[in-house]
Design brief:
about 120 residues; mainly alpha
């Protein structure tokens, strides 16, 4: 169980929104609300994503960009998309029927960040 100082800020948000929901535990929750490994993961993710705050991402946008279970979008990619006016929702939309979302195409390496930006702009036109 985590027994350290109270968790605040971006780390607390990441714990609540990304780490704890993935918890595979059916027992009584720890007194602090968190397990030590959960706090360690949240701190690592905070360290990875904190600099994006200086590039205009809000904590809420960081959570959106973090995405699903495997993440997929790096902090650097999120900043590039943000600066180009592309949102996480834009990447999650499917284009033509039968085609995957831009996010999935990016995550599996079928398209580049630049191609995803171009396609988003084309769809918005």
């Amino acid at each position: 169980f985590y027994r350290g100082e109270p968790i605040t800020g971006l780390t607390a948000l990441i714990l609540r929104e990304r780490v704890v929901p993935r918890r595979n535990w059916n027992g009584t929750p720890p007194p602090s609300g968190y397990f030590q490994d959960e706090v360690a993961l949240a701190r690592k993710l905070t360290s990875d994503w904190a600099t994006t705050l200086f590039d205009g991402l809000t904590p809420e946008l960081i959570i959106e960009w973090m995405g699903g279970e495997d993440g997929g979008i790096t902090p650097e990619q999120a900043v590039t998309f943000h600066q180009a006016g592309v949102t996480p929702r834009d990447l999650n939309r499917r284009g033509d029927p039968g085609h995957p979302s831009l996010r999935l195409g990016l995550e599996v390496g079928n398209i580049t960040v630049e191609q995803a930006i171009e396609e988003t702009k084309r769809r918005q036109a």
